[in-house]
């Protein structure tokens, strides 16, 4: 009953006129960046952070959450109509969604995507609202050793698992950690990695890092590969609708996709890409067993399941973000940085120290999901027209907005210079296939890992054994060890298979 009363209080805050406005702005912006390929909700939140410091924290985070949710909803529109996913999480949707569109079934594909996203989001937010406090109660017992182990787990999981290429992921992580160390060390007073520049003594703002890597880096990458060409025309979308047969084929994949997606948002090695592939594979296997598979030619199950899995991860990713201070995606990492900019530290005490903000945020997720249903179901053809904006105008606007936003945050020309330097770094990383997410994770979680390691060693008077005294820490290190061993075995087998000579055919 206490959870009900707290959630009702959250609705009372979320349904105020101003917070409803921020929620609406967030879901509209999120849907827009989700529709436009290459942008993504992470870039949108990064661009908004420097211009929202004058807002009330509750309103700002309601808007950020709206952008996060909206990006997942909108990403499927381009996947279905253009075969170009607006976000990487919508990649699997394009497999069957675009085939449906080519067969004249774009309205059905859009409808099952939007309805599946809505239902899975509502289910996930409900679970988060009622079970996140229980998880936070367990997290209260976490000490410095456990938090350091969680940070290491998040580092390696993001670098090696989510990024795909372990070596490139670790290099990106190292770059992020190096950026986090720039400036004066608060505990020892030592000057680190400033290159003799007094302007860097305060360190590099997380806002500059995120906007530079995601916005400026992406613009430079697009400019180098695509030039200033207008967007491609789209397949006619029509008004989304579903027949009774479409609904009967979609509701089970919606449930299965939601169940698959829920746990992946809550773990540091999660993300929405993995469960979407799992859902697609499961639905394809089940359709083959039934003997009426349309996979490869436009199966509606191949859109329903992955889209439900995709959106289920978004709400559950807020559990480790709010309760443990650990982000599981680039967007969540930027939201963590925004919390810190407001002087708020996510963690076990957040639900008591900032209860009004947390419950208003959770309530706004229900409101935002309804808004997204209204925005996406009848207006998908309108969002599709955003694809007709010439890319040179679109990205020029992003550069101007990013520059003004970073300058307005501190009125510092040094930050603007750093913005473009880090943007150039982001361009180089993209050009050579290095992932961006580990850089963000390292830059934001690096200070947390360092401070918790120092706290643990201070408590034990320098005895490193304290890092391995906790069962939770040992379990996390054990998972890391098993993952490394399995990775090495896989690499060894791959090399052995390549080195094995091909069989000779007898004459």
TrEMBL record:
Residues 20-440 form the DUF112 domain. The chain crosses the membrane at residues 20-49, 109-132, 138-159, 166-184, 204-223, 318-339, 359-380, 392-409, 472-490. Keywords: Membrane, Transmembrane, Transmembrane helix. This is Tripartite tricarboxylate transporter permease.
């Amino acid at each position: 009953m206490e959870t009900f009363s707290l959630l009702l209080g959250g609705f009372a805050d979320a349904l105020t006129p101003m917070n409803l406005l921020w929620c609406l702005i967030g879901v509209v912006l999120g849907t827009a960046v989700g529709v436009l390929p290459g942008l993504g909700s992470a870039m949108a939140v990064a661009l908004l952070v420097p211009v929202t410091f004058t807002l009330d924290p509750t309103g700002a985070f309601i808007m950020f959450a709206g952008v996060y949710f909206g990006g997942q909803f909108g990403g499927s529109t381009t996947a279905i109509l253009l075969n170009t996913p607006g976000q990487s999480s919508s990649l699997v949707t394009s497999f069957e969604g675009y085939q449906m569109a080519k067969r004249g079934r774009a309205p059905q594909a859009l409808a099952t995507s939007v309805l599946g996203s809505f239902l899975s989001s509502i289910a996930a937010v409900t679970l988060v609202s009622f079970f996140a406090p229980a998880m936070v109660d367990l997290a209260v017992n976490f000490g410095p050793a456990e938090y350091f182990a969680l940070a290491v787990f998040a580092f390696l999981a993001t670098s090696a698992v989510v990024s795909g290429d372990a070596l490139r992921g670790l290099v990106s992580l190292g770059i992020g950690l190096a950026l986090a160390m720039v400036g004066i060390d608060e505990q020892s007073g030592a000057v680190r990695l400033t290159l003799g520049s007094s302007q860097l003594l305060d360190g590099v703002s997380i806002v500059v890092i995120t906007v530079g890597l995601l916005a400026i880096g992406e613009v430079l990458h697009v400019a180098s590969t695509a030039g200033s060409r207008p967007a491609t025309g789209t397949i006619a979308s029509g008004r989304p609708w579903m027949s009774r047969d479409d609904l009967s084929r979609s509701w089970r994949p919606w449930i299965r996709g939601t169940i698959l997606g829920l746990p992946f948002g809550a773990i540091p090695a999660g993300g929405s890409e993995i469960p979407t592939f799992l859902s697609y594979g499961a639905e394809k296997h089940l359709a083959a067993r039934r003997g009426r598979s349309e996979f490869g030619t436009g199966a509606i199950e191949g859109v329903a399941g992955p889209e439900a899995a995709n959106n289920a991860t978004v709400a559950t990713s807020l559990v480790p973000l709010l309760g443990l201070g650990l982000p599981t995606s680039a967007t969540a990492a930027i939201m963590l940085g925004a919390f810190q900019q407001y002087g708020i530290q996510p963690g076990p005490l957040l639900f008591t120290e900032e209860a009004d903000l947390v419950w208003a945020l959770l309530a706004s997720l229900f409101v935002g999901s309804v808004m997204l249903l209204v925005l996406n179901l009848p207006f998908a053809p309108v969002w599709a027209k955003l694809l007709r904006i010439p890319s040179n105008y679109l990205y020029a606007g992003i550069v101007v907005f990013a520059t003004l936003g970073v300058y307005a945050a501190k009125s510092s020309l040094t930050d603007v210079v750093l913005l473009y330097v880090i943007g150039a770094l982001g361009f180089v990383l993209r050009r050579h296939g290095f992932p961006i997410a580990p850089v963000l994770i390292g830059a934001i979680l690096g200070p947390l890992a360092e401070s918790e390691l120092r706290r643990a060693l201070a408590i034990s008077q320098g005895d490193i054994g304290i890092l391995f005294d906790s069962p939770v820490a040992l379990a996390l290190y054990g998972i890391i060890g098993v993952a490394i061993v399995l990775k090495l075995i896989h690499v060894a087998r791959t090399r052995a298979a390549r080195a094995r000579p091909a069989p000779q055919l007898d004459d």
